[in-house]
């Protein structure tokens, strides 16, 4: 048995790169070899944002790149375009890259390919070359279980062949899982073309011997029981920094937080993909003004300046707050000045908030974010929902009301701290997840 050598390949979005980077760091600490494959575009981007790629090289991680097939100026927020281009261009280039990596390290050839969703094609390439594969599922185990159960949902007549629920009803995929309605299915809000795509991708992901999940058996016991392939190895928190940020982190917000009273600041961030429409942006700004307490708001620069108008209304003062383009989120959530997290409920943000013991105010945008909200509000009971009005807007008054309700609720605060303790007990640094990680490493030897 030699040293396992993992070739890890994330789909090029922040929400996939970050957890795979955390997993890579954990594997490297266990003595494994890691070759991290980025698209050329993302590698340049992460390097130019002054991230920590160099410190990872010191830990023994190697970086390699392949072109995604798009022009540098192409809009990479168009995921259909990115997916088609990646699948058209990268599979043909991967065998030669693997050959080159192996030629440089004849003692330790690649033993396993680890991919995130959308990169299942690399498992197919590996399969043909006789290399084992695994998946790191970057969203909740519940969303993976739901995608895995698509054939059953179709057979049972719960959804049609296009993924559309046949009637209004609640579905429970297995005991200990929350009941879901059609809007909670992870393909919700992604557009019609993505459902057949997910069905196809799930078949490819079956080439992965393990489906590693950034979760624990305390957080999602029912979902993890749906298939023996599921292996919970979360919460992935090897490091408190995201070393491959696509935007430059504004670290001045940490100094600013140092000046704020304990548990006073409302942190607002909607991850790396969600787009806040101009009228919602205005309500949010005015709602934050109404709070009469400090806030830290991440307003990501738009990928396409014509698409979103982030103009601040004249009525917005923002004097109690700080607005940044991109924040060192893990450090922010751990800062004693933070009181709560207004979040889109992306799975990474959900896990990060849980591990910091921060109560949530939830406003999901699409996909798995709705069921993540159910976990936060209904299962773990560590947050509240922000309700929309009849026009689909979260109004400024709703924001103020729910922040006040949340921060007055001592039960939610106590449960958040308890959940933090429970989750940390399981991290890859100790507990069941660390045993699972060792099991995975031993399998890959
Ligand atoms: O200012 C910021 C804001 C975010 N982050 C980080 O960016 C990541 C964001 O990930 P996530 O919260 O999961 O949001 P998305 O980027 O929207 O993630 C996509 O991928 C996730 C995992 O598959 C899904 O759960 C989401 O629905 C999908 O939108 C997290 O690690 C954050 O720490 C920062 O470092 N700084």
UniProtKB/TrEMBL annotation:
<comment type="similarity">
    <text>Belongs to the UDP-glycosyltransferase family.</text>
</comment>
<dbReference type="InterPro" id="IPR058980">
    <property type="entry name" value="Glyco_transf_N"/>
</dbReference>
<dbReference type="GO" id="GO:0080044">
    <property type="term" value="F:quercetin 7-O-glucosyltransferase activity"/>
</dbReference>
<dbReference type="Pfam" id="PF00201">
    <property type="entry name" value="UDPGT"/>
</dbReference>
<feature type="domain" description="Glycosyltransferase N-terminal">
    <location>
        <begin position="7"/>
        <end position="66"/>
    </location>
</feature>
<keyword id="KW-0808">Transferase</keyword>
<protein>
    <recommendedName>
        <fullName>Glycosyltransferase N-terminal domain-containing protein</fullName>
    </recommendedName>
</protein>
<dbReference type="InterPro" id="IPR002213">
    <property type="entry name" value="UDP_glucos_trans"/>
</dbReference>
<dbReference type="GO" id="GO:0080043">
    <property type="term" value="F:quercetin 3-O-glucosyltransferase activity"/>
</dbReference>
<dbReference type="Pfam" id="PF26168">
    <property type="entry name" value="Glyco_transf_N"/>
</dbReference>
């Amino acid at each position: 048995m030699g040293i396992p050598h993992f070739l890890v390949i994330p789909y090029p979005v922040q929400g996939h790169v970050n957890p795979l980077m955390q997993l890579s760091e954990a594997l490297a600490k266990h003595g494994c070899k890691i070759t991290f494959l980025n698209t050329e575009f993302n590698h340049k981007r992460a390097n130019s944002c002054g991230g920590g790629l160099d410190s990872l090289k010191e830990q023994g991680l190697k970086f390699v790149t392949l072109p995604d097939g798009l022009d540098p100026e192409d809009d990479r927020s168009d995921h259909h375009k990115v997916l088609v281009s990646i699948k058209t261009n990268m599979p043909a280039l991967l065998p030669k890259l693997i050959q080159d990596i192996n030629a440089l390290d004849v003692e330790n050839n690649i033993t396993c390919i680890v991919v995130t969703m959308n990169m299942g094609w690399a498992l197919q390439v590996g399969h043909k070359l006789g290399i084992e594969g695994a998946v790191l599922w970057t969203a909740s185990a519940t969303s993976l279980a739901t995608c895995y159960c698509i054939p059953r949902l179709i057979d049972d007549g719960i959804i049609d062949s296009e993924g559309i629920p046949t009637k209004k009803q609640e579905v429970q995929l297995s005991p200990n899982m929350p009941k879901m309605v059609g809007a909670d299915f992870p393909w919700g809000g992604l557009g019609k073309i993505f459902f057949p795509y997910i069905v196809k991708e799930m078949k490819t992901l079956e080439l992965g011997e393990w489906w590693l999940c950034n979760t624990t058996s305390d957080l999602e016991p029912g979902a993890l029981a749906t298939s023996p392939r599921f292996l919970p190895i979360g919460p992935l928190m090897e490091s408190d920094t995201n070393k491959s940020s696509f935007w430059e982190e504004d670290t001045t917000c940490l100094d600013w937080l140092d000046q704020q009273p304990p548990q006073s600041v409302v942190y607002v961030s909607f991850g790396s993909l969600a787009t806040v429409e101009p009228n919602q942006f205005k309500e949010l700004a005015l709602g934050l003004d109404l709070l009469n307490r400090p806030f830290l708001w991440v307003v990501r620069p738009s990928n396409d300046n014509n698409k979103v108008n982030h103009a601040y209304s004249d009525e917005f003062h923002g004097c109690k707050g700080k607005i940044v383009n991109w924040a060192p989120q893990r450090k922010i959530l751990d800062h004693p000045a933070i009181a709560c997290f207004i979040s889109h409920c992306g799975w990474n943000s959900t896990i990060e908030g849980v591990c910091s013991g921060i109560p949530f105010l939830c406003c999901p945008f699409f996909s798995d974010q709705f069921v993540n909200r159910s976990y936060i509000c209904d299962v773990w009971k560590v947050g509240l929902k922000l309700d929309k009005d009849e026009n689909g807007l979260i109004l400024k008054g709703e924001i103020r009301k729910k922040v006040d309700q949340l921060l007055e609720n001592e039960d939610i605060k106590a449960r958040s701290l308890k959940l933090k303790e429970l989750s940390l007990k399981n991290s890859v640094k100790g507990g069941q997840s660390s045993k699972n990680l060792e099991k995975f490493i031993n399998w890959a030897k």
